[in-house]
Amino acid sequence: MLNPDGVYLGNYRCSLMGFDLNRHWLDPSPWAHPTLHGVKQLIIQMYNDPKTSLEFYIDIHAHSTMMNGFMYGNIFEDEERFQRQAIFPKLLCQNAEDFSYSSTSFNRDAVKAGTGRRFLGGLLDHTSYCYTLEVSFYSYIISGTTAAVPYTEEAYMKLGRNVARTFLDYYRLNSMVEKVAIPMPRLRKEKSPSYKHPLLRGPASNYPSSKGDKKNSVNHKDPSTLF
Known about the structure:
The chain has helices at residues 4-8, 34-48, 79-85, 87-95, 116-123, 153-179, and strands spanning 56-63, 69-73, 105-106, 129-136, 139-141, 148-150. The protein is of the alpha/beta class.
C-alpha cells in the first residue's frame, strides 16, 4: 500500500498532496513521494544483494472502466524475455475465472513511462519480470457467459489467492521452461536511459525506452507452446 494517506481520504489515484504516485517512479521525491522513494531504494538494495533473487514485481491497481482482472507487461527486443514474460499471466488465466488474458497487453506507451512497471522493467535485468495487475472496480464476465458478476471483497481475495497459486504453478513448470528455452537473439545496441540510479550489479539486458515512445502494443506468440 503506497498511498495510505490518499486512500484514507477516499482517493483511489492521488496522494494526500494530489500526486498520481504511479507516474513518479523515475525520480521520486523523499518529501513529495516518500513511499515511492523508500520502496525504490529498498528494491535497488535487494537487487544489489547477491543473496537475494528478485524475480517478480507486481503493482496492483483497480480499474475504473474495464471489466475483469488483467495485466500490463513491457515490450523488449529480446524475444525470449518477451515470451517468458507472457507465461505468468497465461497461467493466472487458467487459475482465475475472473482474469482475462485477452485484455492483457504488453506496451511501452509514453504516458506510462513513470509507472513502476515501466521503470523497474528497465532497471532490473532479464531474470526479473514486472507487471501491473489491474482489477475492475465493478465486475467480471466468466468466459463463455455474458452476465456480469459484481466483484465482492471475497472475490478480490479469491483473485489474490489465485495469484499465489499461480506462483506455485510457475515454479513447478520453471524447470521445464528452462529445458526448452529458445536461443537468445542478437540485440541491437540501446541508448542509455535518461534517468540515473545508483550503481547496480549489472545493467538490464534490455529496457523499455522512456523517451520518444509512441503508443505501442504487440501481439506475441502463445507461450503455451513452450509446454
